[in-house]
Design a protein that fits this description.
The complex is a heterodimer of chains A (122) and B (213). Chain A has 122 residues and is mainly β. Chain A is built from 1 helix and 7 strands; from the N terminus they run αβββββββ. In chain A, the strands form 2 sheets. A 5-stranded antiparallel β-sheet of chain A has the order 4-3-2-1-5, with no helix packed on it. In chain A, strands 6-7 form a two-stranded antiparallel sheet. Chain B is 9% helix and 39% strand. By secondary structure, chain B is mainly beta. Classes of the chains: A mainly beta (122), B mainly beta (213). Chains A and B meet through helix 1 of A and strand 1 and strand 2 of B.
């Protein structure tokens, strides 16, 4: 067995509630379990996926949203994290890069992405 | 005595019940065979000789073949000794697998660190870099002074400086076994382990587990 196969032995199973074809430009809501003291609740984080990287247990994706007062907030989630309740995709967009860092320099209407209609097969 | 020989596979991360990502090193360890027991009467000390990784008989020196035959084990590529305080309670021919370890066990892991060749004082001993600007040329990574002047008129013994780095035996103490996979002979050990991927590592119960910690 080669190295990759051996490393996979301890991999977490993919979360069925996370789309496996998450792509940059997707507008998503991430429902993430947070611990507050001894209470646990689910927090929604809605924004644009600007980066998807890694594979297996090491895969992460970064969501950017504009919080109050126009402050940009980016949060990186491990794709296989058991603390992700689910990820809901609201829109897919036509993008020409793998990393949408240019959105950081754009505000308001300039930061929009063109909607992409997924093919039936997707 | 808990000890095993393995090969470092590589690093990854796994999630615990809390959802935290734990950095782990995967080691493919065992099955190992007890090939000899060293006793004070015969050898002057207690130790267990373990063998790891089966190999074709023609690949080992003829002199060793008898050694394996006597122990009743297949020919093995690696033989290593583990010192123990007293009678280890093992027999020649016994098999040791990762199943001898449990999640949560504290272990000491020995490996051979990656060779870094002739390294400078900054990499080798953590010296500080000199200024990059203010007229400095060619001395950014120089080690600086090696000692005083006419008195003592020589460099002290043991003065740290550039030289060969790495490729030495290193033991990391007190690592935690996070997961055990007996089917594939794998151990997941929290944190980093010395040596390159594919390098030989020796894993034994942490000496800190002994009484009075």
């Amino acid at each position: 067995m080669n190295k990759a196969e051996l490393l996979k032995a301890f991999e977490a199973p993919p979360n069925p509630n996370v789309p496996q074809d998450l792509r940059p430009g997707d507008i998503v809501s991430v429902y993430f379990r947070v611990k507050e003291g001894d209470r646990e609740r689910v927090q929604e984080f809605r924004g644009t996926v600007i980066r998807v990287r890694g594979e297996g247990n090491n895969a992460t994706f970064t969501v950017r949203r504009i919080a109050s007062h126009g402050v940009g907030v980016e949060r990186t989630f491990p794709v296989r994290s058991p603390r992700i309740e689910k990820v809901v995709r609201h829109q897919q967009s036509k993008v020409r890069r793998a990393r949408l860092y240019y959105l950081r320099e754009r505000i308001g209407k300039h930061a929009r992405l063109k909607r992409r209609m997924p093919k039936q097969s997707e | 005595m808990k000890a095993i020989i393995g090969k470092k596979v590589g690093m990854t991360q796994i999630f615990d019940e809390e959802g935290r990502a734990i950095p782990v090193t995967i080691v493919q360890a065992g099955p190992c065979y007890v090939t000899q027991i060293r006793t004070p009467e015969r050898d002057g000390y207690w130790a267990v000789q373990l063998g790891f990784e089966e190999v074709a008989s023609k690949r080992i020196p003829a002199g060793l073949r008898g050694h394996f035959q006597k122990a009743g084990v297949p020919p093995l590529r690696f033989l290593r000794e583990f010192r123990v305080d007293g009678d280890p309670g093992l027999q020649v021919g016994d098999t040791i697998t990762v199943a001898n370890f449990q999640e949560g066990d504290r272990v000491d892991v020995t490996g051979w660190s990656k060779g870094r060749g002739f390294a400078g004082a900054i990499k080798r001993h953590g010296f500080s870099r000199q200024p990059k600007t203010h007229g400095q040329t060619d001395r950014h990574r120089a080690p600086g002074a090696r000692g005083a002047a006419t008195d003592p008129g020589r460099t002290w013994k043991g003065q740290r400086g550039p030289g060969r780095m790495g490729n030495e035996r290193v033991t990391i103490i007190g690592l935690t076994v996070v997961k055990v996979d007996p089917e594939r002979n794998l151990l997941a050990i929290k944190g980093a382990v010395p040596g390159p991927n594919g390098g030989l590592v020796l894993i034994r119960e942490s000496y800190k587990n002994k009484t009075n910690g």
